[in-house]
Amino acid sequence: MFKNVKSIGFIALLALVLLLAACGGEEEEDTGSGDNEGGEEASGTELGETDLSVPYVAWAGAIARTPLVQQVLEEVGYTVDITQVEAGAMWTSVANQDSAFMTASWLPVTHQAYQEQYGDDVEELGNFVDEAPLSMTVPSYMDVDSIEDLKDNEELGEAVDWTVTGIDPGAGVMESTETAIEEYELDNWELSASSEGAMLSELQTAVDNEEPIVVTGWQPHPMFATMDLKLLEDPQEVYGGDGDRIGAVAHTDFQEESPAAYEVMQRLLEDYDQDMENELLAAIDEGAEPEDAAAQFLEDNPELLEAWTEGLGE
To answer: Which region ranges are annotated with the description Disordered (predicted)?
Structure first.
């Protein structure tokens, strides 16, 4: 009988051991799963949609900063296609969700018409530059200081063929300049559209020969570092007074569709300032390709790259 009791006791003990072992295995498995969940939290917000299209206009600042944004996002695990377009196409593609976000909005003045048209479909992510003044611009050797000085200025008008040399026709600064011509009653003057490159070429030629010229200008821009120029005073504030803010604008579903990219942009925009932009602009002005200037900046500032990407994506 005692043998039977011992046998039963042994069997019960063995069953208990097996049960505990099974529970322990489940606990270990659950712990492993917990570690994975913790890993997901440590690796950060989900990437979501990883193919991102980012349009920008062919203006100096946008050419400089956009490859930087691209490379930071690619560090996290995104595939980023950056494309040069005109301002109207930039806004349209973001509003229609053909693009994730843009890197060259100028608000509240320069791109006011686009904001009014697409405002319900887009959101501002933040600013690259908080104040970016715009106005008609001339070499400092010219004896004019205000847009008002152009009115009925026969000598200057005839010298420059009554022409303000502009950039691409879709640019907000062009619309503001057309408005300025009307508001300041510059009846004989007209705005000539071209491109930023063509405008800069004409400006450089005029400066080299100390000839008069009136162009559409804005800051920050390397032309103010390489040439002695002045923005004409704008007492009516047609161009927005202290200037626009240059920012990133996304479609309203960007955060939901690509959460980690949204977080990267929030962090980057928090730190980005005009000094960073000037550093990129200077490198490009000295001959670096924009993507190389961006790569060098990130190499020289690893703490920024870490801060912008830590805990996110891959």
So the answer is: 27-47
Q: What's the whole-number mean pLDDT along residues 106-125? A: 94
User: Any idea what the CATH number is for the domain that residue 178 is in?
Assistant: 3.40.190.100
31 domain-assigned: no
- Please report the pLDDT score of residue 314 as a whole number: 64
pTM for the predicted model, two decimal places: 0.72
Residue 78, helix vs strand vs coil: coil
3-class SS of residue 159:
helix
Q: Is residue 34 part of a domain?
A: no
Helices 259-271 + 302-309 axis angle, to 10: 140
| 216 contacts 167 by C-beta, under 8 angstroms | yes
* Residue 62: closest CA among 223, 246, 227: 246
Dump pLDDT digits (tens) for 270-303. 999 988 998 999 899 899 999 999 999 999 999 9
- pLDDT, tens digit (0-9, with 9 covering 90-100), for 181-233: 999 999 999 999 999 999 999 999 999 999 999 999 998 888 988 899 999 99
Q: Count CB atoms within 10 A of the CB of residue 187.
A: 11
Q: Are 218 and 173 in contact (CB under 8 A)?
A: yes
**Contact in structure between 11 and 4 (CB atoms under 8 Å):** no
On whether both 212 and 278 belong to a single domain, the answer is no
